[in-house]
Amino acid sequence: MITREVNSKDENLKVELFSFMDLVDINENKEVLIKRILEEIPKNKEIGFAGYDTKESLKLFLDWMIDKSEDLDNITEFKIEELVEKIQKVINKISKKIEKRKLNLFVFPSFNNFIHEKLGGVSGFCEWENEITLIINPNSNWKENFDFSFGHELAHSLSKFYKNEKSLGSWLIFEGIAEHFQKNEITGKKSAIVESITKEKAMEIFEEIKPHLNEETEELHRELFYGTGRYPLWAGYSIGYYLLEKYLKSHNLDVLDIIFKSSKEINV
What we know:
The structure is a single chain. The protein has helices spanning 30-40, 55-66, 80-94, 113-118, 142-157, 168-187, 199-209, 218-226, 235-250; strands at residues 2-7, 13-19, 101-109, 122-125, 131-136. It is an alpha/beta fold. It folds into two domains: 2-157, no CATH class; 168-265, no CATH class. β4 and β5 (131-136) form a beta hairpin.
């Protein structure tokens, strides 16, 4: 594990980086790699083991994420300096626009086909406020897609409401905020997940799911965001983006005006 403290130029935003990418080069198979990660991961009293309550839960995640042990035989060199540079460029863009804070960032290797083929080799999630987990395939063009994923998860990590408000409507709002944040503040572009379906199709699906917006339904959430059922892959992200686009325009607001708000304060 390699640790770094990455600071914005004004030192208003600090990122405590825990990267496990270095362990790929020194291990022969997936099982040994997972064992080394579990041995080296620090426990934080607030966020556990990279957002997981136990090492066993983290182990299950790592087993799915690392996926194909045969890919450990031919690894593209991963340079920690390039990762630090990417992080610093992103946080410099927003550090003056938010209150002073420190984030924990965990970066794990992955050879999962879905992440490589559908997400350009980099993905992420946020389990706690001020905590981000990123997943990177070193054999991919991860540097081209890093800002989209990091920017999206950065928006989630800034919110104290994101992990506590779990209705379908809340998910759509928070994902819409994250996609506007990464576009407006970080990349200047819509992400591939937003453009996966047209605005017209997104609004058509939204009308269909309206009766369920106040429900905490995991099955429908998976169908909307991960394409496990009747809806296209990533549909929920696209719906959230266009709902927030309309809301921001009609209220003459910027995404930074609402990023710290509860979804209950945002009537889309």
